[in-house]
Amino acid sequence: MILSSPHVHTQFCDGRSTAEEMVLSALSHGCRSLGFSSHARQNFAFHSAMSPEAETAYITEVRRLQKAYADKIRIWLGVELDSYSCADTAPYDYIIGSVHYLPDESGFVAIDGASEPLYALLKSFYKGDGIAMARDYYLAYGAMMRARKPQIGGHFDLLRKWNKACHLFDEDSPLYRQHALYALEAAYESGVILEVNTGGMARYGAESPYPAKWQLEAWHEMGGEVILASDCHYAPDLLSHYNDAVELLRKIGYEKVRVLGTDREMFEETELEPVQL
Ligand SMILES: [Zn+2]
Ligand SMILES: [Zn+2]
Q1: Which ligand is nearest the CA of 5, by number?
Q2: Which ligand is the nearest neighbour of the Cα of 154?
Q3: Which CATH superfamily is domain 19-271 in?
Q4: 253 burial class (0-12, 13-18, 19+ CB within 10 angstroms)?
Q5: 20 to 30 A Cα–Cα from 18, which one of 6, 108, 119, 174?
Q6: What is the 72 CA–ligand 2 centroid distance (Å)?
Q7: Helix or strand or coil: residue 130?
Q8: What is the pLDDT of residue 46?
């Protein structure tokens, strides 16, 4: 199995490690490719995304690392684009398309920030109707897939992050599933590879990757392709919980997954096998 992650954050946005520390971690894990995906520039919540200066420095540094480590690992320059970002993605090899915010009357509430603002949004803006909140999330996700056609669909059901602690909505509700399926179909029709994102397991003790198992089952039934992604913010976590994702995907029926290419082709296919960490 070719090991890699296409979803990596560094100190150029909200990551803890430098880009070179990520490359060294990748080499120590036996990875043959690696993709950086800093948060694209956006005109709100500036702290979590790249500034114009950071973006210039990010591109320069990743290009330097590509050359410096060319004989050891294939490095790709990607970007994670939020659905409310208007950033120019022309400099990048690939885009991870994600929804991180829900709007209210006065601005944007982060879905994966603290629980209190999200809970307040549910109570005030949605009058406690969590399914309506989930509907807006998945509408934004589907629209993002269709409009920006990212190569990779990021953390498909991120809105689930606080659901266990805050009981925002019923994940078994048929209406919830209907809204999620709408976004899943939009992703499929847009030719997106869906990431199986283990970042929440590494960073805040999530019990399973994004997307939820039933969503991956539906995706598999559609014929959708997946890629393992760690949403890594700290170099030692580069392949964290990959074995959980491998086990889950094999149970669902996947035998092969996509992986960032080791040469010119951006996405190759690789067998799903247990990972030696
Ligand atoms: Zn994200
Ligand atoms: Zn990310």
Answers
A1: 2
A2: 1
A3: Metal-dependent hydrolases (3.20.20.140)
A4: exposed
A5: 108
A6: 25
A7: helix
A8: 79
Contact between 229 and 209 (Cβ < 8 Å): no
Cα-to-centroid distance, 271 and ligand 2 (Å) = 24
Contacts of 145 (CB under 8 A, 6+ apart): 97, 153, 183, 186, 187, 189, 190, 192
Supply the pLDDT for residue 277: 78
pLDDT value at residue 221: 98
Domain ranges across the chain: 19-271
Give 7 Cα–ligand 2 centroid separation in angstroms: 6
Distance 246 CA to ligand 2 centre (A): 20
Q: For the chain, which residues score pLDDT lower than 50?
A: none
pLDDT of residue 45: 80
44: phi then psi, degrees, rounded to nearest 5: -155, 165
pLDDT of residue 37: 98
Which residues fall inside 5 Å of ion ligand 2, going by CB?
80, 231
From the CA of 15, the nearest ligand is: 2
Ligand 1 center to 125 CA (angstroms)? 23
Give the pLDDT score at 92. 98
Give the pLDDT confidence score for residue 72 in this predicted structure: 98
pTM of the shown model: 0.97
CA of 111 to the centre of ligand 2 (A): 13
